[in-house]
Amino acid sequence: VLYGISALFIFTFGPVNAGCAYIIKNLIKGEPVFLWQDFITTIKRNWKQALPMGILDLGMLGLSAFSLLSYYVNYENYFVLFWTMLLIIMLYTFIRFYLYTIMVTFELGFFQIIKNSMIFALLGFWRNLAMFAGICLMIFLVVWLGSLFIPIAVISIFILIFATSAFMGTYAAYPKIKKYMIDPYYTKSEQEEAEYGE
User: Fold this and answer.
1) Whole-model pTM?
2) Of 88, 95, 140, 118, nearest to 80 (Cα)?
3) 195: helix, strand or coil
4) Which residues fall within 8 angstroms of residue 47, CB to CB, at 6 or more apart?
5) In 3D, which of 172, 173, 162, 187 has the Cα closest to residue 104?
6) CB neighbour list of residue 102: distance below 8 Å, 6 or more residues apart
7) pLDDT value at position 198?
8) Phi, psi dihedral angles at 106 (to 5 degrees)
9) 3-state SS string over the chain?
10) Continuous segment of H or E residues that includes residue 34
11) In angstroms, rounded to a whole number, what is the distance separating the alpha carbons of residues 106 and 103?
12) pLDDT per position in the chain (198 positions), as tens?
C-alpha cells in the first residue's frame, strides 16, 4: 500500500504543482479564482507537460537532498562539494518557481520551458535571492517555534510552509515573466489571448 501511495505521488506531483501555480499566479495578479474549477481545468490542459516535468523535478529534488546529506556526513573530505551543492540547490529553487508558472501561462515546448526558467533564474537573481532568504527565514522560525512547542511545528509544516513558500516563489517569478515575455510583445488587450484561461 505504501509503495502504491509513493508511486501515486510521483505521477501527481507535476500536475498538482501546475494547478497550484495557476491559482497562485491569478491571486498575485488580483484576478478572481475559482479554486477547484481552475485547479482541475489547469491539470487537464497541462498534464502532458506537467507529468514528465513533475517526475524530473522530483528526481532533481531527491538527488539534491541525497547528495547534500552524503557530503554533510563526509564533510571533512567533501566540504567544497557540500557548499557547491548548497549553491546548486539555491539556484534550482529559483528555477522551479519559473517552471510551472511559465508552463501554465504560455504554450511552449518542454525544453523551452526549462531553458527560459534557467534564464529567468539568473536574470532575476537578486529578486530570487530575496525570495529564497524569505523562505529560509520562515523555515527557521517554524523550526525554532517547533522546538518550543512541537504541535506548532507539525501544524506549520502542513499549513504554512508549503503554501507560503509557493506564494513567495510565484510572487518573485511572475513580475519578471511579465516584464520580459508579455509586456514587450503584447498590448494589454492581447495579453488575454496570450495567457491561458483569460
Assistant:
1) 0.82
2) 88
3) coil
4) 15, 18
5) 173
6) 108, 113, 116, 117, 120, 177, 181
7) 47
8) -130, 160
9) CHHHHHHHHHHHHHHHHHHHHHHHHHHHHCCCCCHHHHHHHHHHHHHHHHHHHHHHHHHHHHHHHHHHHHHHHCHHHHHHHHHHHHHHHHHHHHHHHHHHHHHHHCCCCHHHHHHHHHHHHHHCHHHHHHHHHHHHHHHHHHHHHHHHCHHHHHHHHHHHHHHHHHHHHHHHHHHHHHHHHHCCCCCHHHHHHHCCCC
10) none
11) 6
12) 677 777 788 888 999 999 999 999 999 888 888 888 999 999 999 999 999 999 999 999 999 999 999 999 988 888 899 999 999 999 999 999 899 999 998 888 999 999 999 999 998 889 999 998 998 898 888 777 777 777 776 777 777 788 888 889 899 899 889 888 887 776 555 555 555 444
Query: Which residue do the cell numbers 505521477 mark?
Result: 11
